[in-house]
Amino acid sequence: MSKSPNVLISGFGIAASVYASTLLRAYPNATITIVERDPEIRLTGASVDIRSSAVEIIKWMGCESEIRDKTTKEEGVEMVDENGKSFAKLMATGNSEVQSITSEYEIFRGDLARIFIRPIKDKVNMIFNETVESYVQDEDSVTVTFANSQEVKSYDLLVAADGLGSRIRGMMLGTKPSEQVHDEGAYASFFVIEKDLLNGSKLAQWYSTTGGRAIFLRPDPDPRGRTRGHFMNTAWASDVEGRAKINAALRGGNETYMQYVEKEFANVGWLAPEVLKAMRETTDFYCSKFAQVRSPRIQDGRVVLLGDAGFACPGIGTSLAIMGGHVLAGELLLHNNDVKSATKAYEELMLPFAKAQQSTMGDYAMQVLNPQTAWGLWIRNTILWALTKFKVDKIGVWVAGKLGVKEPRLRMPDYPWPALKAE
């Protein structure tokens, strides 16, 4: 085997931790440095799910059982009207091959990050409050200049796992990072409510009103009795002014976005007053847009894009991050640490699969699920009522199971992973 790689990862999230863990499986003596712009690892955010080939990967990693233990225990989603009356229930399928809105692996982002990070935190070099300012690569290395320390260091590989607005992606492509971001027109805030507004139910509740606005409450397994709250706004692509207003609020930070939400949801009915009050009292608030990263390339020799930095895709983004981390480490192993050959193979495998998951259908789905008009709401609610009343959703899942229909899978090579050594 060739010498162990010396790798720099920018950003410490799901993609980075899966990649670092898997690389250490391939090369136990690898030198891994992770720089994170925040002062500590961010362990907040909404629930995420695991689908497609990522399910096989977490089983291979040996952490499926722990992930299942930490899931939100959500059993499905209940659609409610302004009086809190349920008119449709979309239940979890119980089948990891064909999942519904509620995944079999529905887990809070922070809990999933902890599971992936714990085995590697003492095996990597972590540097906080730091980012990559610039890089230059040659035949044998990539030399990085850090933004804060101004240190200059060389590595075999630079992995950009720095999210939607990846500055490294902009450097690699010679463009503004925003040029690869496709706004889906959906914007959400996520926060912890220190009260069980679902009264012990394991069903999430979804309330929609006009203007593409929705309130989403999800169960939290914390024994103290909590709920996860979400405010959702959607705007058509033609609503240039509306999108500009929401994006301005996002750029303004948490306080600005909270003010925007308070104005938008002041008189929408249901539990809005109580949820707005809880939003103001929370110590765990996060807001973001739903967007895809449509990058034409995800590697340039010794520089590679991973996770949201290269192929963000709401709905399957966490799963793509897990797949990408696994594949990048696997290709380095398969190519005997020939970095350029490995990153090229990684791109050839991951980019077409990621692009296949990205389409304008995602935009339309968000608009259909969060209609702008009272007429649109009536149509949506009637369709959902009929689907669940006559069990069309359950019949569809049963038929898919009988026919062997599965979520799209990434066809990965049979990587020559070394056998695990007993701890």
TrEMBL record:
Residue span, FAD-binding domain: 7-355
Source domain of life: Eukaryota
InterPro entries: FAD-bd, FAD/NAD-bd_sf, FAD_aromatic-hydroxylase
GO molecular function, one term: FAD binding
Membrane-crossing residue ranges in chain numbering: none
SUPFAM superfamilies: FAD/NAD(P)-binding domain
UniProt entry keywords in alphabetical sequence: FAD, Flavoprotein, Oxidoreductase
Protein known as: FAD/NAD(P)-binding domain-containing protein
Organism annotation: Aureobasidium pullulans EXF-150
